[in-house]
Amino acid sequence: MPRIEELPDDFDASLDISEPSKPSQTTQPPKLSSASIPTSSPTHNGTTDPSPNPHNTTPALPPSFTSPAKDRPLDDFLADLNRHPLFMTSLDESDGKGGVNVELEGLKALAYEGTPEEVAANFKEQGNEMFQERRWRDAREFYDRGLVVLVDTRRKREGKERKRDKEDNDGGLVNGEAELLGMDYQQGNPTTQLHLEETLLINRAACNFELQNHRMVTRDTLAALALNPQNLKAHYRLSLALLSLSKIPEAREAVHHGLTVSPANKPLQTLRDKISARATELETHQRAAHDRQTRLAAEKHALRLALHSRGILVRHTSTPPPLPPSSQTSSPPELTLSDPLSPTSTLSIPALILYPLVSQTDFIAALPTNTTLGDHLSYILPPPWNDDPEVGGGEYGDVGAVRCLMRTGSGGLVQVGKKVSVEGVLDSRGKEEGKVVEVLDGVLQVIVVPRGRVEGWVEEYKRKVGKTP
Q1: Angle between the N-to-C axes of helices 266-310 and 248-261, in degrees from 0 to 180, rounded to the nearest 10
Q2: Full-model pTM
């Protein structure tokens, strides 16, 4: 059947259509007119004109993406791009002009499509995925959001006044946010919603346990048990959290309630045994601590009796004397008894031997008070530095070459015999006040001076402190 085609206006009129056309050697493709190709004409500033072309099917870009370059810095363009949910590298809930990000809010609203239990179930599944990946905080966040929806729905249904502050759920949506996003509180099955709320509480308790938030675990499990007292997972996790907090009586009670629900439950039976073992361990530790405190008090009492019975005075000051490096230990020096519980046993006192003329010291960690200073100086002298002409000069060769002095409680000096017991030197009974030697800061100080230089050193001491021996 013949076909009739309309010729365009620009068709060559000189063409004789009565003559047959000559066959061509090759078939040339039809040429397209410029009108059939979508183009954009350049503007005055070099950019393209985004005006829509009736033959162009390419969608136009948003106005914020097509502004002239001279008025649109690159940083602003990238900031706008970052506000689009598909290109976000960081969360930006604004539109850059003081308003809200409409695209982002639209995506948020999609999370709340459906009935309350459908929305909460979706959050539960996402939380379960995070839990399987051991991302406890992310999982808890999803459980939080599901609980906000269900708790808000239940309160609405129960006719209670909902608070407009944050739900106490460790980070979740603001109460009523689901309603603002279009949630229909009248839809759904209340029984299914309560069961789902119970499950979310148990799951969130598992996350909190992994994060060692044991007090939050007790809160969530108790809330689940308020919904369903027969929930064995709630009983188990509550007991486990209380055990972790060393609340043994409460843990025993919680596991007992669980076994009342299911007496043959193996995990609860195992946990009951662990609680009993932990209770025994704590009792042992507490008993040992009590015994240590009792013994320590008895030792201190025996030491006080020993000092009192010997007439020895001990005084503590705000500036204890510095000890030589060789005496530095993890615990400070202290007076001891050979039998810590017997006041009549041998008393030992730390002693600091001072050589003031050569700025040297020696330290005796435990000097028995029933020995003499001569007994100890006999193995100390001569010191290693005695033969050094710039230090000792050979003046500290033996016990007979030195004299011993001690400071009194009033700041004076007394010369003590090297053959008198330390206990006799420190006995304050029957002595004048200016002659009593005290043990300062738990350390007995003994001053050793060469025999021929005692008078000169004493005069120098009197000049400095204004005291007479």
Answers
A1: 160
A2: 0.57
